Amino acid sequence: MKTNRKTLLGVPLDNYQPKEFLSEIETSLSSSGIKTIFAVNPEKITRAQRDLELLSALEEADFLIPDGIGTVIGLRLIYGDHISRTTGIALMRRLLELSSLKGYRIFIFGSEPDVNREACKNIMASYSSLNLVGTQHGYLSEREHEDLVREINSSAADILFVGLGSPKQEKWIHQYKKLLKVKICMGVGGSLDVLAGKVPGAPALVQKLGLEWLYRLIKEPPRLKRQLVLPRFALAVIKEKFLG
């Protein structure tokens, strides 16, 4: 998978079309060992530049999907390739659909107890044939995490979705991946909030235009502080393009 790996501001990303990501991931489900998946957006790239633990988790990941329109534009500007966006929640939904068809076993870990419960309820309503073998909210004490890993392994899950927010989920996966027996482990960020109906998904036209960030900002004004990273990210990409 790393043959099409590129870097943006020193942070790795994979240049594959959405269908190619799904095909590569499905191939991984029939192979041995665990494969990790992270979505990478401008905020995560900026954080990874100063957070070496996060950067290490990304560098050692097997699939790094370009999420966030800023990431895609940055890659296109630097490399000139026609790089398509793959959002984390879209890939999660594709994997849930694939799993419901192929019988892959799913474990969902993360978010608040009520959000986890409602997301799982809605997922099962949408994918009635899904083999959901375990769930666990993300509010655990440090000593409970190794017990959780044993529970996940005992469930014989093929795919583990981890929704702890970034960078916590990347670091958690990086820390425990050698102990986990799943085939695929994916950080899904706030996708559980969307699937639970707590956070409304952006309309199709907004998604097509790459303006989910603006839609989320309007719906959740406290996100403004997080979005302030975007101008700095854009300036850094421009400098890399024209000044090397």
Description of the molecule:
The protein is an alpha/beta fold and 244 residues long. The chain has one domain (11-195): Rossmann fold (3-Layer(aba) Sandwich), CATH 3.40.50. Helix content is 50%, strand content 16%. The protein contains 13 helices and 8 strands. The strands form 2 sheets. The protein has a 6-stranded parallel sheet, sandwiched between helices. The protein has a two-stranded antiparallel sheet with strand order 1-2. α8 links the parallel β7 (159-163) and β8 (184-187). The model has no long low-confidence stretch (mean pLDDT 91).
Key attributes of the depicted protein:
two-stranded antiparallel ribbon, six-stranded parallel sheet, single chain, 50% helix, alpha/beta, 244 residues
What profile does the largest beta sheet have? 6 strands, parallel
Can you tell me the CATH class? Alpha Beta
N- to C-terminal separation?
A: 27 Å
User: How helix-rich are the residues, as a percent range?
Assistant: 40-55%
The fraction of residues in strands falls at: 15-25%
Per the CATH scheme, the topology name is: Rossmann fold
Q: Compute the number of helices.
A: 13
Task: Give the topology string: H per helix, E per strand.
Answer: EEHEHHEHHEHEHEHEHHHHH
Supply the helix-strand structural class.
alpha/beta
Return the domain count. Answer: 1
Mean pLDDT: 91
Q: Please provide the count of β strands.
A: 8
Low-confidence region ranges: none
CATH architecture, please?
3-Layer(aba) Sandwich
